[in-house]
Every structure is written in C-alpha cells, then in structure tokens.
Amino acid sequence: MTKILGTTALLIAVALGLTACGAPRAAAPATAPPASMPGMSGMTASPPGQAAAPATPGVVSIKDFAFAPGDVTVKAGTTVTWRNEDQDPHTVTSTGNGGPLRSPTLNKGETYRYVFAAPGRYEYLCTIHPFMTATVTVTP
After folding, report:
1. 103: domain CATH number?
2. What is the DSSP letter of 96?
3. How confident is the model over 5-16, as pLDDT tens digits?
4. What is the pLDDT of residues 28-72, one digit of tens each?
C-alpha cells in the first residue's frame, strides 16, 4: 500500500510540474509604436490597426471603402496598379465623360492596371460606391 501511495504521489507531482510548465503566461501590455524614430528621418510608424500607405509609387489599395493613397503623383509612362482588398466589389472609373480609366468590377484580390502616358490630372471614382473618389496627377 505504501508503494502505491508513493507512486501515486510521484505521478501527481510530475503532473503538477508539467501543468505549471505549460501554464499560460500573462501577455505584456500592448504599446503603440513611436510616431517617429530618432535617426530615421522621414520615416514614421503606423498606429496599430491602421495600414501604412503603399511604399511603392503607383500602387493604390482599395480598402475600407477608400482608395489609399487618395492622391497619387507619378511621372508620364508610369503604370498605376489598383488592388481591391475589400470584401465588396469596386471599380476604378474616370469621373466625367471620356476619361481613360474604365476598370471592370474588381472582386477581392483582383487588380487593375493603367499606363499614364500623358501628363495631367485624372480624377476617378468607384461607380458602385460613388463617394469613393481619388486623383492621379501625372507629371512630365
């Protein structure tokens, strides 16, 4: 009987030890990144939950029912790419009559590309959600 109690006590001790090793630890409190970092002039961190503007010139994200960035400036001959990151479909369509932008309906993950050959200011919107507007400015 003593041998059984000793074995049982040993198994309980091992089980408790393993439980303690695998116990979840308290997470460190989340902190926001600094707005800017010393020695990194011109670079900023995005607040948590907010996406940074695309780093590549000529790339526009369609996200949260907005074009980001809303104003893009590129040189003539640059291809601008729009990527739909929303669950809802969107379009990229020139405002007014006769503009060059006429994308098909873009579902999530789909892209539309257009090469801007001539300098000028090109305003566009999503025809499905006309409150979504933006501009591409093309320089020589």
Report:
1. 2.60.40.420
2. S
3. 444 444 444 344
4. 333 333 333 333 333 233 333 334 444 466 899 999 999 999 999
Residue 52 lies in a domain: no
Residue 7, in any domain of the structure: no
List the one residue out of 75, 79, 82 whose CA is nearest residue 60. Answer: 82
Which residue, 115, 111, 88, 89, is CA-closest to 100? 115
For residue 46, is it within any domain?
A: no
How far from 31 is each of 34, 42, 50, 81, 90, CA to CA, in Å?
9, 22, 14, 34, 35
In angstroms, the CA 120 to CA 69 distance is 18
In a domain, 133, yes or no: yes
In the sheet that holds 93-94, the strands lie side by side as: 71-75, 133-139, 120-125, 93-94
Convert 15-33 to b/e letters by CB count within 10 Å (16 or more is b): eeeeeeeeeeeeeeeeeee
As a whole number of angstroms, the distance between CA 86 and CA 32 comes to 25
Scanning the structure block, which residue is given the tokens 């503009």?
Answer: 99
Please list, in sequence order, all residues whose beta carbon lies within 8 angstroms of the beta carbon of residue 41, skipping any fewer than 6 positions away. Answer: none
Query: The whole model's pTM is what?
Result: 0.60
